[in-house]
Amino acid sequence: MNNVPKMKIGIVAVSRDCFPESLAVNRRKALVAAYAAKYDAADIYECPVCIVESEIHMQQALEDIKAAGCNALCVYLGNFGPEISETMLAEKFDGPKMFVAAAEESQADLLDGRGDAYCGMLNASYNLALRNVKAYIPEYPVGTAEECADMINEFLPIARAIYGLANLKIFSFGPRPKNFFACNAPIKQLYNLGVEIEENSELDLFEAFNNHAGDPRIKEVAADMAKELGAGNKKPEVLEKLAQYEITLLDWVEANKGSRQFVAIAGKCWPAFQTQFGFVPCYVNSRLTGRGIPVSCEVDIYGVLSEFIGTCVSEDAVTLLDINNSVPADMYKESIEGKFPYTHKDTFMGFHCGNTCSSKLAFCEMKYQKIMARNLPIEVTNGTLEGDILPGDITFFRLQSTSDNILRAYVAEGEVLDVRTKSFGAIGVFAIKEMGRFYRHVLVEKNYPHHGAVAFGHFGKSIFEVLKYIGVAYDEIGYNQPKSLPYPSENPFA
Q: Within this chain, do residues 122 and 171 fall inside the same structural domain, yes or no?
């Protein structure tokens, strides 16, 4: 993935001056050794210049981890820790940060070997709040060297997403299509998140596309498309136009990303796109998303923002799908009931015209866009990548700003079932426990649009932590609650 941050976490140990410094030194060394034994040692950097006990030490450590190229920070409480300088370090560091604390090692060493970091974490959290500093604190942030190493590794995908958002530019082209008010995109919250946005006219994009006519790279890209599609290349006549469009988008973001390291695209595909460009862009969207540059359909800005979070967390391709249609009763009876542990209301179909990359499809063919072709000549609707989505674990999620500028999100884990859809587009039969209740009391109740981002794997834990870190209120993060936990809006007598 060439559009995802590579993180290097600086580990800085801290010590309160009335505790033996050796406690923090030895525990830091043990932590680093434990990480290297289990994970990639390149993920971390051990700050060797000092144990932070004072503001001067804080400055020395900050300069050292910056010089080492660290873009994330782990403050490690080897003992109680100095609440002022340790939280000042987090305040001064420009990047994602976490706090973890050392557990006591043995009952045989509870005199000079007792560190009291369990207590120190309370003071650290209080001081972070005083400074308005956000930091990731694990569910249980006190552990052995091995346990803290696991916590740091779990921080990696969270840090990637947070760092990525702070260095992201979203390019949008054109207003939303008619009747798509649900995909509203108040940009104030984008700026609050540190995300830059460049809104462009689709006419500007059309001009840039026309200026790429005859580009010498077109034939090479078209050949690569044909190779990827293989036997599914049912529309070879449109590949050079699609290649021209792909080159146009890549050149646009490269020329306009400015100071930002990472990019995402909220594109348009109708109502005038097909007749003017002469194709639909779904397949190109799928190819860029497969490389780590997420592209949303229908100028869904918060949809592509969600996709980018999923890309950073999973380091894999994501997709954006309509939470589209119910599973027919006869399909459920024939292919799901008794074979999978889901009720009929746990299932639904996720669909979009053809934007899911080929690596996430069980089979695929280049086709025309069936819905658009009901009103237009088929030849201008070519360009979709159709096929059933691969069965396996998924996470369905979305971050959204409401029209009154409130950040809201949902996340639910489930799976794509190994069931033929017998339909069109990029589509799958999805199952999420208690989906029926989740649909009514989160998606409908909280006014979410029909688009949801899909990550291929179970990443709910990391995505939930990202949402908390960036400031989504706890009561604004929806999830598929079990039957034993009613939703606030759920009728207890129903």
A: no
Q: What are phi and psi of 255, to 5 degrees?
A: -75, -20
Q: Distance (Å, rounded) from C-alpha 355 to C-alpha 352?
A: 7
Domain that holds residue 221: 167-478
Residues 162 and 466: beta-carbon distance below 8 Å = yes
- In this structure, is residue 449 part of a structural domain? yes
The CA distance from 99 to 125, in Å, is 9
Secondary structure (DSSP) of 249-282: HHHHHHHH-TT-SEEEEE----SSHHHHHSS--H
Q: How many CB atoms lie within 10 A of CB 161?
A: 28
- 65 and 194 inside one domain: no
Domain-located, residue 484: no
* Per-residue pLDDT tens digits for 80-132: 989 999 999 999 999 999 999 999 988 888 888 888 899 999 999 999 999 99
Contacts of 132 (CB under 8 A, 6+ apart): none
Question: How many of the other CB atoms lie within 10 Å of CB of 179?
Answer: 6
Please, are residues 323 and 431 in contact by the beta-carbon 8 Å criterion?
no
Q: What is the DSSP string of 448-476?
A: --SEEEEESS--HHHHHHHHHHTT--GGG
Q: How many CA atoms lie within 13 A of 415 on its CB side?
A: 10
Predicted confidence at residue 271, as pLDDT, reads: 82
Which regions in the chain score pLDDT beneath 50?
Answer: none
Q: Are strands 392-401 and 451-455 parallel, antiparallel or unpaired?
A: antiparallel
pLDDT for res 182: 67
Is the overall model pTM greater than 0.85, yes or no? yes
49 contacts 68 by C-beta, under 8 angstroms: no
Q: How many domains does the chain have?
A: 2
Domain check: are 129 and 224 in the same one?
A: no
What is residue 92's predicted lDDT score, i.e. its pLDDT?
Answer: 97
Q: Please indicate, yes or no, if residue 319 is contained in any of the structural domains.
A: yes
Residues 243 and 107 both lie in one domain: no
Domain CATH number, residue 107: 3.40.50.10940
Distance in angstroms between the alpha carbons of the first and the last residue of the chain: 47
Do residues 79 and 115 make contact, with C-beta atoms less than 8 angstroms apart? yes
